[in-house]
Every structure is written in structure tokens, then in C-alpha cells.
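Follow-up to my post from last week.
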Amino acid sequence: MWQSTDEDKPREACGVFGVWGHEDAARLCYFGLYALQHRGQESAGIAAHNDNGILLHKGMGLVADVFKPADLDKLVGLSAIGQVRYSTTGQSSLTNAQPFVVRHRRHSYALAHNGNLVNALALREQLEKTGSIFQTTMDSEIFLHLFVKNLDLGLESALVKTVESIKGAFSFVLLTSDGELIGIKDPYGFRPLCLGRVNGHYVLASETCALDLVEAQFIRELEPGEIVIINKNGIRSIQTPRPKRRAFCIFEYIYFARPDSDIFGHNVYEMRKAMGRALAAEMPVDADMVMPFPDSGNYAALGYCEESKLPFEMGMIRNHYVGRTFIQPSQSMRDFGVRVKLNPVRKLLAGKRIIIVEDSIIRGTTARTRIRALRDLGVREVHMRVSCPPHRHACHYGIDFSTRGELVASKLSTEQLRSHLGLDSLHYLSLEGLLKATGEPAAADRFCYACFNGCYPVEFDQELSKDCLEKA
Ligand code: SF4
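User reply:
Got it. Predicted complex:
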């Protein structure tokens, strides 16, 4: 039997990358996607533009498995876009893998999307009523349908009009049949998207860690509601109307983004440490050591130690060579799936009082098993500190916990969860503490934190689920 080893964590939405004007655009894209692999592992794809049109290669799986050198050799062109995907709307299948390429009135377009459109159902219904035929069940396809309908207005006006009619979280990279590279960020700025330059050529990337790998210089992040059009004339920026408030996804800092990336104006590693420090100040507890369950919570645990002056230990060791799936043993071996990945250091832990720092508890299943393993070793006290508030509400902006039923904190109180997990104490960082830890004076109007308090910055049409467009 095959079993996933990561069932207790939210899976990221997607990562996008784009290159303009580089003679090896597809290969650069490949490396960019490689650096963004943490944002999506279900499928990967690259579309490249040359004088003959747009070429595409995509497949299910990790970047390294989807692309062989010969595949990249075929993607000849000076501009390219790519995507790694975890499906948030639309089932996981090759048809739904991106970039998505369409042909319209002798022109081709390729699109890659990170985020979720919250008015997708209504828009799709309207479009189908007027004759549109959809190839996929992805919300991203709606953007292209609207965009080509608006093209009589000219490229720039078509982009602006389309952005104004869609709602939700979107960071798009778009490639046109003229080889233009276009970056678009939604008016609230939910998902990160940055602009860089390598050897005089522009690149767009979900996170700066991808710029680092291709040795691109960071120029700036796109503004919420900004469209950038990159072509032989340089770069042109268009600002679409945007609300006063922003809604940068605060969970990118807590869990999603890579710690070596700078997003929304801050370094992710530093942010996680600040959250750990805030956690220690808010709810200290006497103990012999602080440890994370690697790798989640590593950086918040470092911050917690800095503030509490307690020693940091790696009390559990990760097997870095275990894959995402593996063959189960034929005979029953209790908690094999958890132990194959993380194993406690017995001599370090026996008889100790420990504080585990976690970045989040989504379903709580693996945490429970790991805590039981610590108890079995003779750990005297197990306290848990979580570097964000309890997840009690679904995310409609591109993260995979899209129904409340998946969230253990929406069903159990903190005290009930403490008892369920077998802990001596459990404390979550308060929302006030989290916002303060960002160091942003107007943090309440800068970030989205709807999964904690249920106040959604952008209204959604109805409960969206992965397969809602299939049922429609
Ligand atoms: Fe991020 Fe939570 Fe807002 Fe979703 S609801 S965008 S996960 S902060």
C-alpha cells in the first residue's frame, strides 16, 4: 500500500516563474521551478515562445521527474513561463496541469496561476451561457476566456478589464504569441510575485529564492493590482484600481514560503523567528529544552529559545531520503508511516521536560502519534507552543484547507485538543501577538488572516471546493 507522509500539513497552492529575452529561457524556467518546488508537487510545466508559436511540456510529478534534458532542448525560445502546481480548484490531472495554452484568432497565449478565483462559478456560468466551451475544470481558464473576449479593446485595456471582473487571489504569469511576458497581481496582493533581472533580461517569480538560484537580481515585488508588460520596449507597469487595505497571506510567512525568501517586504526566516519570540513572551513555561518537529517549526523554535533562554535541541531526526510515498511493511508495525520519517533521539529525551514549537496544527493526526512516541520514551512533560492562532476557518484564496471539517481546531477547543494530543500544556500565539510580531504598524490592514478569525477580505460566492467547477 502506498501512503503519503505529509498528510498533517496544508499543501501549498502553486509557484510560478517567467523569463523574458533570455536565449535559454526554458532552462532558466526549469531552475526557477526547481527552487519553487515546495509550493506544489502534483504537476509541473513550461511553455516557451519562439517565432513558430508557443511550445509546451508538462506532466504529473516533481520538476526533476517531468523534465529530461531532451524536453528542455525542444522548448526553444527567448521567453518562457512555468508552474508547479498543487490543485486548489480543479482536480489533479494532466489536463489541469499548467501552463495552460490556448489559441484564439491566430494568436496563442500561455497562462500560469497561483491563487484561487472566488467568483469562478458565477463567471463560468455566464461564459457558458454565451457559448464558451471549457477544456478544463480550472478557475484559471476563466481568465483566458474573459481576456480574449476583451482583446478588441487592445492588449492593455483587455488586461485591465479582465482583472476588474475577476475576484480573489491571483498572481498570474502570461505569455503572448508576440513573446511578451506579463505579470499580474490581484488588487489585494494575496500571493507573492516578484520581479528580477538576470544579464539584462527580466524574470518574474513567486519567491525570491527562485531568483537566487538563477542568479537574478531582485528588483521589486509587484504592487497589489499591478500589471507589468515586458517586451522589446522594456517594462511597462499599469496600476489597476485597488482597495485601501491589502491582504498579503500571513500564512506564507508562517508556513508556505521558503525561509530564504523575502516576500511582502520581509525575510521569511526572520519573520518566523519573531513569531517564536512572541510566543515565548506570551506563554512561557519552565522546561529542559525546546525542540521542533523538523522541519516545521524550526525557525519559530529558534526564536522561542532566543526569548526564553532555554536550550534548542533537535530531539527528533528526519530521514531526508524517504520519499513522499513508500511501501508499507507487510506486517502491522504501529505508526510506521510517522517513524520512518522522524525518529526521536532516545538518550537526549528520556526523563526530560520538553517544549515542542510547531508552526501550525491542521488535522492534528501526526502530532498525536509523535507525542505518543515521546511519552513511550519516558519524556516527563510535553508542552506544545504553536506560532500562529488556531486554524478554525477555511481558506478560499488558494490553500488546500478549503473546508472547515478538515481543521481539528474548528471541532475541538484548545483544552480538548491538548487532551486529545496527550500534552501537558498547549498554547497558540494570539492573533494580536502574531500581527505585532510582523513589526508592521498597520498589520491588521496589511495581511489576510481569515483562516484564524473568519473575516474574509474578499467575499466569496459560496463554499468553494476543489471540484466545484466539475459539479457546476
Ligand atoms: Fe492565507 Fe489564511 Fe488568508 Fe488563506 S485565509 S490567504 S491561508 S491567511
